[in-house]
Amino acid sequence: MRIAIAADHHGRQLKAHLIGWLTTEGHQVDDRGAHDSEVVDYPPLCADLGRQILTGRADRGIVIGGTGGGEAIACNKIHGIRAGLCTSAYLAEISSGHNNTNVLVLGARVTTSEEAVAITERWLATAFKGGRHQLRLDQIAALERGESLA
To answer: Of 9, 10, 98, 133, which one is the catalytic site residue?
Structure first.
């Protein structure tokens, strides 16, 4: 699988750990930054990663911040991106299986490297279930188009 990955200054070390693991698992990983310890803003990283997915250059993406909260908000502002902030393998399973997320968001300050691997592994391994969950994604798409659900 082609995976784009990005992290702000807080998430660089966890990003490096995940890149190593993902590569070992046979994935093609595109490191979109940050590449040094200088403080960076995460919205441009999220926008770049989202473009990689929307243009087909990546199948899925992973964004890592301090807690991941801001990154999840930024990613979900991009039309067509469904980002899930996951702090456990169970949440990753639901995120992928029910919400068909194409971006996994992790928080380096609240997730160990071992937890991040377990979360990522479950997220990648869980297929979207469709059915009633697809109806909900269709409703989310309607919200993105500015349509009323009432």
So the answer is: 98
